[in-house]
Automatic annotation (TrEMBL):
Residues 127-214 form the Acyl-CoA oxidase/dehydrogenase middle domain. It is found in: Cytoplasm. InterPro entries: Acyl-CoA_DH_C (IPR013107), Acyl-CoA_Oxase/DH_mid-dom (IPR006091), Acyl-CoA_Oxase/DH_mid-dom_sf (IPR046373), AcylCo_DH-like_C (IPR036250), AcylCoA_DH/ox_N (IPR013786), AcylCoA_DH/ox_N_sf (IPR037069), AcylCoA_DH/oxidase_NM_dom_sf (IPR009100), S04_starv_induced_SfnB (IPR023922). Its EC number is 1.14.14.21. Residues 18-119 form the Acyl-CoA dehydrogenase/oxidase N-terminal domain. This is Dibenzothiophene monooxygenase. It comes from Pseudonocardia aurantiaca. Keywords: Flavoprotein, FMN, Monooxygenase, Nucleotide-binding, Oxidoreductase.
Length: 398
């Protein structure tokens, strides 16, 4: 396996956010060009791994900063504002760090957290085509005599896998229970294809991964199903990171819209003002967009606090509250990202549609990422909890 040069271990939330802001500023400088050219951000992801940011959720007892969920929401939003594709790539990494935290043995934790702190991060290969739902897995997963595991089949939408030393997968064991298995990206039989062709999130590396008679040690398999035998906020945390990505996309659309209103927009003749930024209707419209982003961020913060509170005192009630808070943040961030990225065009005018400005990438990114799972189900669970006291299901999806 490829080794990585010495990676700093970030100490706390303040350091993590400072590093993230500086890194995101660098990302933003090349974001539009990478998107337009569909150029995979290999150098950028390598720099992310070298920054130490991918180790900040490792528990303190294993040497990590173990930052709060609230901090992770801000961190992910900052990265996604810099580049929505690069910002999405570590979502699966942090998700699988959490799998290890909640379901792995001490020996597995010691090994894999050591990998993370050394900069050897995780991609993912969860989704499959052809199964009845996205939560079902048909990939061949068999224990061999002696304990090794044979993996054979194809996964799709494998965000981040072209860049990662490890590719965790989901599969069903012989008892039809969900497990996670860590596959070295350079293992014989592993093929990663750069065939993602979505209109948005163009450079996430969300293509196909093929496993042809791949064999891994049993020590690389983690019984994910055990997480759901007790109250959990595991699913809420994964969804919360997705909400943060949408907040970041909304932030980016608002940022670039502000710049273009000042730089290229012309005032409407009837406004009687010298610049578009002085037009009262433009000011009002931009205030409405800013309000949507603030509302989404406030709900994101509330959700992060709810996850942290549930982790400190995990009960059925606290887990339900965290899941509902995250559902609210997801629903509002979805609306903010898609709406702000679309409506900002009208405040700039026809010039905003110039392809060279690539302002439309924010809408394309928002519309693509928010399709990850349906907003309508978030609203349904919020309503059932508020009206009928029914907690969201413990299934990892909310």
């Amino acid at each position: 396996m490829t080794t990585t040069a010495a990676v700093p271990v970030l100490a706390d939330a303040a350091e993590a956010l400072a590093v993230a802001r500086a890194f995101a500023s660098d990302l933003a400088a090349g974001d539009s060009e990478r998107d337009a050219q569909r150029r995979l951000p290999r150098a950028e992801v390598a720099a992310l791994a070298a920054s130490g940011l991918l180790g900040v959720t490792v528990p303190r007892r294993f040497g990590g900063a173990d930052v709060s969920a609230r901090t992770m929401g801000d961190l992910m939003a900052v990265l996604a504002e810099g580049d929505a594709s690069v910002g999405q790539i570590p979502q699966n990494h942090y998700f699988f760090v959490q799998v290890l935290t909640e379901a792995a043995s001490p020996e597995q934790q010691e090994f894999f957290f050591g990998e993370v702190l050394a900069g050897r991060h995780f991609g993912n290969a969860l989704s499959e085509k052809g199964t009845r739902t996205a939560a079902e897995y048909a990939i061949r997963f068999e224990r061999r005599p002696g304990g090794d595991v044979l993996i054979d089949g194809t996964k799709y939408y494998a965000t981040g896998s072209p860049f990662a030393p490890w590719i965790p997968i989901y599969a069903s064991d012989a008892g039809d229970r969900k497990v996670a298995a860590w596959v070295p990206a350079d293992a014989p039989g592993v093929t990663v294809e750069n065939d993602w062709a979505g209109m948005g999130q163009r450079t996430t590396g969300s293509g196909t991964v093929r496993f042809e008679e791949v064999v891994i040690p049993a020590a690389y398999v983690v019984p994910t199903w055990t997480i759901f035998e007790r109250p959990e906020v595991f699913g809420a945390f994964g969804n919360y990171l997705h909400a943060a990505i949408d907040v970041g996309i909304a932030d980016a659309a608002l940022r670039d819209g502000r710049d273009l209103i000042h730089r290229v927009a012309r005032p409407w003749g009837e406004a009687g003002v010298a610049s578009a930024a002085e037009d009262p209707l433009v000011v009002h419209g931009f205030g409405d967009l800013a309000l949507r982003v603030r509302a989404a961020r406030a709900l994101l913060h509330e959700a992060g606090d709810a996850i942290d509170a549930a982790r400190a005192d995990l009960t059925v009630a606290s887990a339900a509250e965290a899941s509902v808070a995250v559902a609210a943040a997801r629903a509002e961030a979805d609306t903010a990202a898609v709406g702000v990225a679309a409506d900002v065009f009208a405040l700039i005018g026809a010039r905003a549609a110039a392809d060279g400005l690539n302002l439309h990438r924010h809408w394309r990114n928002a519309r693509t990422h928010t399709l990850h799972d349906p907003r309508r189900m978030k609203i349904q669970h919020i309503g059932n909890h508020a009206l009928n006291d029914v907690p969201p299901p413990s299934n990892g999806w909310i």
